[in-house]
Amino acid sequence: MTSNSTNSWQSYYAPQSVAEAVALLQRYDGRARVIGGGTDLVVETRRGLHRPVDAMVDASRIAGLDRITEEDGYIVIGCGVTHSQIIGNELIHRYGRCLAESCSVIGGPQVRNVGTLAGNVAHALPAGDGTIGLLALGGEIEVAGIGGTHWMQLQDSFRAPGKSFIDRHREVLTRLRFRPTGTDEGSAYQRVMRPQGLCLPIISMAVRLQRRDDTIADARISMGPVGPVPYLAEPAMETLIGGAVSTEQFEKATDVALSCVSLRASKYRASHAYREAMVRTYLPDILWRAARRAAGDEASS
Ligand SMILES: Cc1cc2nc3c(=O)[nH]c(=O)nc-3n(C[C@H](O)[C@H](O)[C@H](O)COP(=O)(O)OP(=O)(O)OC[C@H]3O[C@@H](n4cnc5c(N)ncnc54)[C@H](O)[C@@H]3O)c2cc1C
Prior knowledge:
Blueprint: E1 11-13, H1 18-28, E2 32-35, H2 41-46, E3 55-58, E4 68-71, E5 74-78, H3 83-87, H4 90-95, H5 97-104, H6 109-114, H7 117-123, H8 129-136, E6 140-145, E7 148-153, E8 158-160, E9 163-164, E10 172-178, E11 185-193, E12 201-212, E13 215-224, E14 231-232, H9 234-240, H10 247-260, H11 272-294
Parallel strand pairs: 1-3, 2-3
Antiparallel strand pairs: 4-5, 5-10, 6-7, 6-10, 8-9, 11-12, 12-13, 13-14
The chain binds flavin-adenine dinucleotide.
């Protein structure tokens, strides 16, 4: 435990186990906050965007949660795993390509070296890059609190922009997982962003696609920011399933996706028309990328 008088908290803990982390949170009874790499939280705390807390509880040093493993038919990512670890990991590259692609666009190397996927998910922004990648893969998260530990669907954890159903003062997001893509599946991610200036995404999208020869057997599409929380485009997914692997089918799904989302014009992002054009350009494109990967063309970019 250390003290830091320049910040708004007095104590900083680096527990070695989940039980220790939960016990600390219980002891502080809402006056402590979980921290990962701190790339969002420290910046926002210094800007006065969070109510002050007495202590930070660091989830990134918990023993055994700093790695990526294959367990019981899942790829499992500990809450201490950074974006850089994800980008360089062979299991993620082979079985969850869109997640590696989504983490690779986050910030710069310094941010990716300390920022965690767990922090990206717990922050619950509508277009967190790693979050959009994991959502398309069918991600699940494990949450530990005083009542025990449970797994939940990633999409059920988002409440509002920046607000999560994970109580970040009392609970720890301990692990994240997804089913590995099979030999007939592929995934892909694309973000469109201004090349310079204020860096807010214009649109981020990820897809996971399973094909049976030239038919789409299964599909998932995630998008952000297109509403208050990261969006799973279920009507567009339903349009794809059972259809042909074809540009026509991909464009039909894009029309359906666009009819379900709100692409607000914003001076920090782009006009409605431009954002719509980006979805029309890149959603069919990443569906094709995923479809080619599902056919064994792993080099497809
Ligand atoms: C310069 C810069 C550029 C950035 N660029 C991008 C970008 O391009 N794309 C993008 O998506 N993000 C970006 N970010 C935001 C940030 O880096 C990521 O969201 C990162 O993944 C946050 O992870 P972290 O471990 O640093 O989280 P922290 O900052 O430690 O925490 C973020 C939130 O999650 C909670 N939290 C963290 N870990 C846990 C846990 N295990 N259990 C429960 N709650 C937890 C915290 O209480 C806090 O509310 C950028 C940030 C900076 C400073």
